[in-house]
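Input record, target 12 of the design panel.
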């Protein structure tokens, strides 16, 4: 049996990022958290992921500071939801880069087509950056949405990080 190498202390920032983001399911969990998923059951249903794997990945994302675990009451039980932190929110350019690469170099027979980043204020497609390609206004995270994604054909506003 081989042991996984850790790159947590590597000199290379790509290696350190891969150490945090490179495990199976991690980027998909972050994608869904960015789309507003917060509850364990919703992650499980949307991703089709096994409970033990989801528990482990969520725990690691909390430990690494990309998600935070917040209690909520569900009837008489206390449960937890998982919300993006600033570090998790800062992974958005990585998700956009992977989405662009996937649109350019892979295809889905069942998917809705390319996923678009939309400036909600003007309703037009844009690219990640400081300004909207269509209207020229400054882009704030709260003004962005994904359209034509895996989750919904409508627009999905991007979740804001918790303080």
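The sequence produced for target 12 reads:
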């Amino acid at each position: 049996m081989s042991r996984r190498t850790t790159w947590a202390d590597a000199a290379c920032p790509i290696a350190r990022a891969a150490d945090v983001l490179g495990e199976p399911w991690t980027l998909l969990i972050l994608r869904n958290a960015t789309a507003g998923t917060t509850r364990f059951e919703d992650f499980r249903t949307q991703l089709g992921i096994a409970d033990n794997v989801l528990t482990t990945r969520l725990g690691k994302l909390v430990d690494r500071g990309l998600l935070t675990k917040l209690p909520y009451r569900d009837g008489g039980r206390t449960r937890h939801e998982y919300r993006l932190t600033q570090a998790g929110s800062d992974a958005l350019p990585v998700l956009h880069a992977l989405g662009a690469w996937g649109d350019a170099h892979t295809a889905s027979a069942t998917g809705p087509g390319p996923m678009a980043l939309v400036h909600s204020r003007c309703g037009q497609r844009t690219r990640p950056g400081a300004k909207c390609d269509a209207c020229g206004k400054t882009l704030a995270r709260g003004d962005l949405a994904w359209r034509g994604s895996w989750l919904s054909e409508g627009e999905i506003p991007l979740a804001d990080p918790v303080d």
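The beta strands are 67-74, 77-84, 116-119, 124-126, 144-147, 155-157.
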